[in-house]
Design a protein that fits this description.
about 260 residues, alpha/beta, seven-stranded parallel β-sheet
Length: about 260
């Protein structure tokens, strides 16, 4: 699995270099930034910009997001306040994982050009996979007081306990409306953790940057890797992303409608 993932990463790195005309930093370099931030007590945010994020940032084909809005945790249609907050957060991130797909790459380049934005560091948008398969995420859990945030954070914390690893703090985050409440919890408990792992769709990007800027903590947006930590055996099966998405959608359909 690790060798196959490494080969895919090399291909993506070449595509990113060709598209954005700059080389992405690798997982080791990303890890060095995170470790340095932990040791010096400084903020550092690592977020990813896939194709959904590219559409949101540029306003391109927003109608295509109607069916996945709940899953990615955004209001639909996205309002001006949301758009401004998302754009400001993305442009303030320390490390930005960028899409290697032609469509997403084109949109992100247009956004960078329009905003005259030059990210401090770019990396692969699959940096979350690389940090997971490379063992970096488990290393943070072993060495540092780590906070887990997201839909699967509670399940991940339970699974980690079975491996004699513990999360210093665990908080759910379902959607954009909950960001401020979750951040308030983090602020009240800021002495309990040193690094934050967030798996919470689009709101996770905003929250990570807010944590880095206002709490001076490293925050990494790990997306589906929170699901992987919660259920590694299931994640190891083919078609994991689509399967986990369908499972979440089905669970939402089965919840009682409260009026």
């Amino acid at each position: 699995m690790i060798n196959r993932e490494h080969e895919k990463a090399l291909v993506r790195s070449e595509l990113i270099s060709d598209c954005y005309k700059r080389s992405p930093i690798d997982p080791d370099a990303v890890n060095m930034l995170i470790e340095s931030a932990i040791k010096t007590g400084q903020g550092c945010s690592v977020i990813r910009l896939g194709d959904v994020m590219a559409r949101l940032l540029t306003g391109h084909n927003i109608k295509s997001l109607a069916r996945v809005a709940d899953f990615v945790g955004i209001p639909y249609p996205p309002g001006e306040k949301f758009n401004q907050e998302l754009q400001a957060s993305v442009m303030a991130a320390t490390v930005v994982g960028v899409s290697h797909f032609p469509g997403g790459c084109k949109l992100l380049k247009n956004f960078m050009r329009k905003k005259n934005w030059h990210p401090r560091h770019i990396t692969d948008s699959f940096i979350n996979d690389q940090l997971y398969y490379g063992g970096y995420l488990y290393n943070y859990l072993t060495k540092y007081r780590t906070c887990l945030i997201g839909r699967s954070a509670g399940k991940a914390a339970e699974r980690l306990m079975a491996q004699e690893l513990s999360a210093a703090l665990t908080l759910p985050l379902e959607n954009y409306r909950q960001i401020n409440a979750v951040f308030d919890d983090l602020k009240r408990n800021s002495t309990r953790f040193e690094v934050v792992l967030v798996g919470a769709g689009v709101p996770g990007r905003i929250l990570c940057v807010k944590i880095a800027q206002q709490l001076q903590k490293p925050a990494i947006e790990i997306g589906h890797m929170m699901d992987a930590m919660a259920n590694p055996e299931d994640w190891a099966r083919p078609g994991n992303r689509l399967r986990f998405k369908r499972r979440w959608v089905n669970e939402q359909k089965q919840k009682p409608c409260l009026e």
